[in-house]
Amino acid sequence: MKKIVIIGGCAAGPKTAAKTKRVNPDNKVELYTMENMISYSACGMPYYIKGTIPSYQNLIIRTPEDFKKQGIDVFLNHKCTQILPDEKTVVFNTFKEDGSGETKRVEYDELVLCVGSKPYTPKIKNINLENIFHLKMLDDGIKIKEKMEKSKSAIILGGGYIAIEILEAFVKNGLQVTIVERNKEIMSQFDPEISAIIKDYIIKRDGKQVDFIMDDEIMEFIGTKEFEGAVTRNGRILHADMCVIAAGVVPNAELAREAGIEIGITGAIKTDNRMRTNIPHIWAAGDCTEENCLITKKPMYAALGTIANKQGRVVGINVNTEEKGVFEAFDGILGSAVTSYFDFSMSTTGLTETKAKIYAKNTNVEPISALVTKRDKAGYMPDSKSITVKLIADKRTGELLGAQAVGAGDADKRIYTVTSALKANLTVNEFLHLDLTYSPAFSSTIDPLLTAAYKLKEQIDK
Amino acid sequence: MKKIVIIGGCAAGPKTAAKTKRVNPDNKVELYTMENMISYSACGMPYYIKGTIPSYQNLIIRTPEDFKKQGIDVFLNHKCTQILPDEKTVVFNTFKEDGSGETKRVEYDELVLCVGSKPYTPKIKNINLENIFHLKMLDDGIKIKEKMEKSKSAIILGGGYIAIEILEAFVKNGLQVTIVERNKEIMSQFDPEISAIIKDYIIKRDGKQVDFIMDDEIMEFIGTKEFEGAVTRNGRILHADMCVIAAGVVPNAELAREAGIEIGITGAIKTDNRMRTNIPHIWAAGDCTEENCLITKKPMYAALGTIANKQGRVVGINVNTEEKGVFEAFDGILGSAVTSYFDFSMSTTGLTETKAKIYAKNTNVEPISALVTKRDKAGYMPDSKSITVKLIADKRTGELLGAQAVGAGDADKRIYTVTSALKANLTVNEFLHLDLTYSPAFSSTIDPLLTAAYKLKEQIDK
């Protein structure tokens, strides 16, 4: 019997708790969170704000009572303040609604840190004004929705996945929205020409409601108590009822660092492929850890629910089985991600051409790419829609390096397919005649993916 | 400059013609077909009958005039009657509407046989009655639709892909339909428990309009001039206004056989991976050829438009480049296929468990399988739907052998993904943590595919 203490209540933590209890029901499993609820889908919050999901209650996957039935003890409102590896102890501050709280020491046999990430907060004057929001915890989602329903206009700082999802919600609710993005393109997880397609789609669909301010940044927020607007580096003065900061997230790694746990070059907790940190009996999983990129074999940071769940499962197994020399490995990720703006999906895996070119600087890789715009089904099917697929490969070896697909058609299906090709280091020649399922209602006789592969082959053969 | 003669006007033939002309515009390219139109999507015909596509004209991809512009000469109504390899000549019969016709000899430098397949016609008494249809050529589709619109009831002989697609059309048009299937399950391309799920769905949705007669077969058709009904082996007497025979197809290989071209054990023309037959300067592609199964490395027969198009492309290149020692290889297929019945999709790739067990008899393979029924998106998304995924692997090596997915949710996306895993011989352990894209609107944090892989791993580790 071991006592397994897990810190973090969103994705990786609850997954670890559930898995480890299933693997060995004799263990004592305790799950601590600083929030006042537990086990909810953070990725679902934009869909609650959009109104796709009627209530935030839908996002709660399991309650403390559900865990109790499984024999897992949940502790809400417990903020971890210190990790003491030598004493195998963690210190919590239990804060109560009345402002009181006390210090609590908890001993562990195995400690799993699933302490997640927090929104990146740029240094902007007056950033603490009311009606400036981040979207991280469930409470944030609830507050953004409440304010949105009373607002006529909004500023979104950032142009990535969360920004686009919030944008859809705001457009749906009739708000005038200004996106302020530091880069030259929104969605910089894609190559510039793909990002441009995404932006063009948004402008074409909702140009009357959406303004883009690119290559600029907010220097100061206007307002005394409440947010009233913002001033940008280029001197633009913007007024709006609310602002959402969606400038990415950073790992919660301070406590770990203070405890002597090794932090990687990405700023996140470093683990091996068993999810062990450098300190015995301390493990980590989810948004607080850095990942191994399966293409470059270099560390990368990706805060995503699916990775958190997979790692939670792995660590839940390994804390039990490792002493027998049995363990499950989590070898790394491809940086796969998807989202949509109304009917327009955008999906990516592996390296973009931009990233492949950076990667090429210190390797022998010679990135080449092919871009194809084609129908996602047989062209004569009335519901066929256009998608644009980009494939990136290494001219030298022919190995695929990455793929992006966007469009009103089924883009994500294509990227799903490339993930297993990348995992297997398939070359363009091997990928070329892939026996994809075909029927006019599902794809075209030669799938856009394969057309792109043909184009890559032409370049390789040159 | 070479003269390339291509016989066959549906998928592989037109694709070969277009590709070979593009690769070397100096060549003389002639395309012959016995039909009175050319280059149409045979796979699209059920969608024309269903009414998804307003006109059969939509199915015509390119007209003889389109080919002419590309410098390709098209000859309609030319039925090939003989191949004379020693003289590098083919003989055609040109039949005209008035019944007349003449014999025509055509010389070639390279001959490409894309002569397709024909419906399998079971030996049934009175099979030539009016209103008994096959669905093979465009004309057939037009006639079936015409008759359907005047009919109240129909019998479909067979329970495979085409049968299910015709069934949907008939149900949509208000017909009472009886399916007569020789096997114990419809859709025998799937494992029995998956076929049962498909049949249950059809019964649940349209049980009032659809009857299944399983494990039985039609022995005799009733009628004098026109079809009136049928009598089955088990003594069932059925009455209906029309009948469609959808009992599969067989390759058109007679002419090739007579000319000394090698026919494989499947009854289709045997080629190497360059699409060459055993006779110099004679090539073959599409439904008339047999394929190499990438899993068993044994010949298999699959008459599918996507394969025909891919092979047409390959042969179109190779007839030009092979003499330089450059060629493209078509190494084989996985038997991937997909269709749907209304919103319910059914998709498969690689070996079913049934086929894997047959394969295991002469190999060391130990087939194991895992079945998972799960939502295709985050469960809290209002449009998430259920899918059932089955994965098959070899317990000994861990290599994946095949996958099936069915359901009202996005099943085909999952099978697409498995095709590249099978192509790369990925093992369950490698597939387990695949970095699939995730967002609540597109998948679940742990995709059904991965849940099935986890289940397989448990069996492998036992």
Could you estimate the helical fraction of the residues of chain A in percent?
A: 25-40%
Oligomer: homodimer
Q: Mean pLDDT across all residues of chain A, rounded?
A: 96
Identify the overall geometry of chain A: globular
The low-confidence runs of chain A, each spanning 5 or more residues with pLDDT under 50, are none
Largest interface, with counts of residues having CB < 8 Å to the other chain, equals: A-B, 71 and 70 residues
Counted by DSSP, the helix tally of chain A is 12
Give the N-terminus to C-terminus distance of chain A in angstroms.
Answer: 63 Å
The strand line-up of the biggest sheet of chain A is 3-2-1-7-18
C-alpha Rg of chain A (nearest Å): 23 Å
Q: Number of DSSP strands of chain A?
A: 25
* Class per helix and strand makeup of chain A: alpha/beta
Largest sheet of chain A: 5 strands, parallel
Strand content of chain A: 25-35%
